[in-house]
Specification:
Layout (H helix, E strand, L loop, with lengths): L2 H11 L11 E5 L2 E4 L4 E4 L2 H4 L8 H13 L10 H12 L5 E5 L2 H20 L5 E5 L8 H6 L3 H4 L9 E4 L4 H7 L4 E6 L2 E2 L5 E2 L2 H14 L2 E5 L14 H4 L5 E4 L10 E5 L1 H4 L15 H15 L3 H22 L3 E7 L2 E6 L3 H10 L2 E2 L1 E2 L4 E4 L7 H23 L4
Parallel strand pairs: 3-15, 5-6, 5-7, 7-10, 10-11
Antiparallel strand pairs: 1-2, 2-3, 4-12, 8-9, 11-12, 13-14, 14-17, 16-17
Helix pairs in contact: 3-12, 4-12, 13-15
The protein binds pyridoxal-5'-phosphate.
Pyridoxal-5'-phosphate binds next to helix 5.
Length: about 400
Amino acid sequence: MPTEELREAAAKYLMQTYARQPISIVRGRGSKVYDLEGREYLDFVGGIAVNVLGHGHPDLVQAIQRQAAQLIHTSNLYYTEPQVQLAKTLVEHSFADRVFFCNSGAEANEAAIKLARRYAHTKYGEDRFEIITMKNSFHGRTLATITATGQDKVQKGFEPLMPGFGYASFNDFATIEALANERTAGIMLEPVQGEGGVYVADRDYLKRLREFCTKKDILLIFDEVQTGMGRTGTLFAYQQLGVTPDIMTLAKGLAGGVPIGACLAKESVASAFVPGAHASTFGGNPLACAAALAVCRALLEGSVLDQAKRMGEYLAKGLADCKDRFQVVCDVRGIGLLQGMELTIDAKTVVADCLARGVIINAAGERVLRFVPPLIITQQEIDKLLETLTTIFTRRAGEEKDPHH
Ligand SMILES: *Cc1c(COP(=O)(O)O)cnc(C)c1O
């Protein structure tokens, strides 16, 4: 179907929940994707931090093909080896003792919220159920997770929201102290706020949060749906921020593009879930888990994590150079291959300019460009992005100086 026809059919048949870019992507290879007309794009979105191994990675493709031929799905009524192997791998490489599998980031956070409530109910009684989250956060689109998400635009029109949530200011410990009380069961936050515009949590703030939570037996929940799986240069972001959560959620990059989510916890917390307490039909099915195992192997046994760390530093430096050279760039922030560039102008127009020049990026908020490429991105590919941004910003600066141009 030609792109124009596809756009018309999409406008007719799909619920209109997305503002889409005007291209139809048909295939991908490495850090590049190709549209219906055969145009090549350098992919700095990576399915929004999902395609950690890029497109068509042979190990991932082979793992999926093999598992698809053997067994795609059974049910959690039975044991399957990929699910147990994946849980073992995640446990062996994190603080956690146990894993629950589901199918998305929102579901992983739902599981985390339910687990925190169950833990607090069991230990302290039914009055302890509140979860403190952060303003400007993003935790998903289910009713509980839009409530957890501290952004009006996500909640508007869906009220009444879930009871039992309060909002602190990110990186502001005093607002936690003001909100927390004997009803508080958990504090949930992203180590780096992704959708909210790429804001990194301070180490000191996290340390105080950790100490506070430990003292009060409040569960510290890290939403690593975006920051996990090597995005920040370590397998999980918490590993380089100097604090360990009690519960952690994963999704996006976990299976390199096959839908999966996971909620991980220490034994003392995980034991609040007993048979029948929580479930998911598709959760941890063999296909998704085989894909995730291939991703884990590439990160843990291959050179991908190392590459992500080096390329993250290279990208951050290149973007910082842009900030030094162009007035439209007012801030650059992030860790590893999760980088944000705040502009004085509308980010959408720069996204469109990049697309026209064969580079896919996206905006997180009105003025922030977000860069979350595959972790296999190369130095030359980063150079191409930086050249493209330089061309666009140079032209913009020229237009500003010469408005009649
Ligand atoms: C994307 C994202 C989610 C939601 O994940 P879905 O798979 O879209 O439900 C939750 N938390 C964070 C931090 C995210 O980046």
